[in-house]
Design goal:
Layout (H helix, E strand, L loop, with lengths): L1 E10 L3 E11 L4 E5 L6 H9 L6 E6 L2 E2 L10 E4 L11 H11 L4 H14 L15 H14 L4 E5 L7 H18 L2 E6 L2 H7 L2 E6 L2 E6 L1 H6 L4 H6 L6 E8 L2 E4 L2 E4 L9 E6 L4 E5 L6 E10 L3 E7 L4 E7 L9 E6 L5 E4 L2 E2 L3
Parallel strand pairs: 3-8, 3-9, 6-7, 7-8
Antiparallel strand pairs: 1-2, 1-4, 4-5, 9-10, 11-12, 11-14, 12-13, 14-20, 15-19, 16-17, 16-19, 17-18, 20-21
The structure holds adenosine-5'-triphosphate (ATP).
Length: about 350
């Protein structure tokens, strides 16, 4: 549905915000662009929308090349972070605005605006102006405006970032349900991995203008393709510990673990394991990371425990009834089946 080939955007001054990027987004897909600040997410979205001109490469929407077309001729609707509503217009006029630009007759566009407003539970608010609405209501007006003109795709730039924490959760569920109902291809920019994991069908994780991995939420969470994605995804960061294979075993942070498949003697690797897959045992343990409890953080229903293992810190998430005392000797025992091994930054596939 949306294809990008070698797409590059360089700003004056030589900043390459999007770097020779290839991507295929399927029809009806809810697709998230995720990455740290400055990685080029917004630039990529704006280049798809036509608000930025590509320096090189092609953008194809629904089989039609749109690279040289202005935004108005790409048949996509963009919803901005700040909603970009017209402050002097009431809700109906805001929603109907794109239809007015397309010269839809007044009666027809007002009927369409009313119908869309009702779908988004805005019927009571039609006569109000944006300044008289809550953040969540303004967001729904912006969505209604995008929906009313039946675009081929929605492009959302951090649409939930102006809502408070509780509203965000509500809006997330609402948006996902709405996207399912409408089945319109949606590209969604966020720096919030929880949001991307919860909402998207697939996620592209970006860094420095490039895509580091494309996959379903389960894929990027369970099998990060490289150490960048491994360290970026996860509410508590993954343990990433340098190790070496010697005498048929993996030596890492003082522990001697089974040799991973696909790695030969003498090779240096990074051993990755989410703290959720580390169990904490008292005292020493044959195949674990022995250390001293240095920090215990309350996560609500569990504790994040940081063990000082000499040269390295190892983290484990333990159940709420197993809070260890700071300073105690303990051992983090990995669930081997969950471990990931990286060589030269890339996942070694078993
Ligand atoms: P954030 O999450 O902080 O919004 P982002 O991933 O959306 O970041 P972009 O806003 O696309 O990132 O910016 C990508 C890079 O391009 C950054 O290095 C930024 O400084 C640069 N950049 C963005 N807009 C311009 C511009 N108009 N002129 C020059 N450089 C720009």
């Amino acid at each position: 549905m949306i294809s990008l080939h070698g797409l590059t955007k360089e700003y004056p001054g030589g900043v390459r915000a999007v770097d020779a990027l290839d991507l295929e987004i399927a029809d009806g897909e809810f697709f998230a662009l995720l990455g740290p600040s400055g990685c080029g997410k917004t630039t990529l979205l704006r280049t798809i929308a036509g608000l930025e001109t590509a320096t090189a490469g092609r953008v194809t929407i629904g089989g039609t090349e749109v690279t040289g077309l202005p935004p108005g001729r790409r048949d996509v609707a963009m919803v901005f972070q700040d909603y970009a509503l017209f402050p002097h217009m009431d809700v109906t006029t805001n929603i109907a605005y794109p239809l007015r630009i397309r010269k839809v007759p007044r009666a027809e566009r007002e009927a369409k605006a009313a119908e869309t407003a009702s779908r988004l539970s805005l019927s009571e608010l039609l006569a109000r102006r944006p300044g008289q609405l809550s953040g969540g209501q303004q967001q729904r007006v912006a969505l209604a405006r995008a929906i009313a003109c039946h675009p081929r795709a929605f492009l959302f730039d951090e649409p939930l970032s102006n809502l408070d924490a509780r509203m965000r959760l509500e809006a997330r569920t609402f948006l996902k349900r709405l996207q399912r109902e409408l089945a319109v291809t949606t590209v969604f920019v966020t720096h919030d991995q929880g949001e991307a994991l919860a909402m998207a069908d697939r996620i592209a994780v970006m860094s420095a203008g490039r895509i580091m991995q494309v996959g379903t939420p389960a894929e990027v969470f369970q099998r990060p393709a490289n150490t960048f994605v491994a360290s970026f995804i996860g509410s508590t960061p993954m343990n990433l510990l340098p190790g070496v294979v010697r005498d048929g075993a993996l030596h890492v942070a003082g522990a001697v673990l089974p040799r991973p498949d696909g790695v030969a003697d003498g090779e240096e690797v990074v051993y990755g394991l989410r703290p959720e897959y580390m169990d904490l045992a008292e005292g020493e343990h044959a195949d674990g990371f022995a250390g001293k409890v240095s920090v215990v953080e309350n996560l609500g229903t569990a504790y994040l425990v940081t063990l000082d293992c000499g040269e390295h810190l190892v983290q484990a998430v333990v159940p709420e009834d197993a809070e260890p005392a700071p300073g105690a000797a303990a051992c983090a025992v990995p669930r081997h089946r969950r471990a990931l091994v990286y060589r030269d930054g890339e996942l070694v596939t078993p």
